[in-house]
Amino acid sequence: MPKDHQFVKGLSAGWIIAQAAKIGNNTVNVVAEIMHKNEHVQQGFNASLGILSLAKAYTPQRLESACKRCLHFKTVTYRAIKSVLVNNLDQQKISSPAATAATQVIDHENLRRKFN
User: Fold this and answer.
1) What is the DSSP letter of 92?
2) How far is CA 83 from the centre of its chain?
3) Phi/psi zone of residue 24: left (φ > 0), alpha (ψ -120 to 50 degrees), beta?
4) Contact 33, 70 (CB under 8 A)
5) Nearest partner of 90 among 30, 17, 14, judged by Cα
6) pTM for the full model?
7) Cα–Cα dist 92/36, whole Å
8) What is the pLDDT of residues 12-64, one digit of tens each?
9) pLDDT (mean) for 74-98
10) Dmax of the chain from CA atoms?
11) What single-letter DSSP state applies at residue 84?
């Protein structure tokens, strides 16, 4: 194994998932999804470890919220999770665009109205 890859030798998917479980269920789901979307589980180790390190830079609670948001919007990548944390989006309520669009009534002179 090349020297650049030897750090992976002692790691296992179970250990990484156990570390994610200390943070929360959403973090576990993110880490598991990252590992399983690669052909080899080991290819997801680097991204998973990066995500876990975000708990040190931010709080574990914020990381858990960011993971929940990224799972909701199906953008499960290290870059997306870090962007959510940097922009404080994890502290905003998750609202689906379809729900908000359906509740808005558009009134415009060029729109036909359905009369009963």
Assistant:
1) S
2) 10
3) left
4) no
5) 30
6) 0.74
7) 29
8) 889 999 999 999 999 999 999 998 888 877 788 889 999 999 999 999 999 99
9) 88
10) 74
11) H
Cβ partners under 8 Å of residue 69, min gap 6: 84, 89, 90, 94
Q: Which amino acid is at 1?
A: M
Three-class DSSP labels, 21-72? HCCCHHHHHHHHHHHHHCCCHHHHHHHHHHHHHHHHHCCHHHHHHHHHHHHH
For the chain, the residue count is 116
* Cα separation values, 45 from 15, 29, 33, 53, 69, Å: 10, 14, 11, 12, 21
Place of tokens 């948001």: 69
- Domain layout of the chain by residue ranges: 11-103
Position 100 confidence tier, pLDDT thresholds 50, 70, 90: low
Q: Which amino acid is at 41?
A: V
Residue 76 CB: number of other CB atoms within 10 A?
A: 19
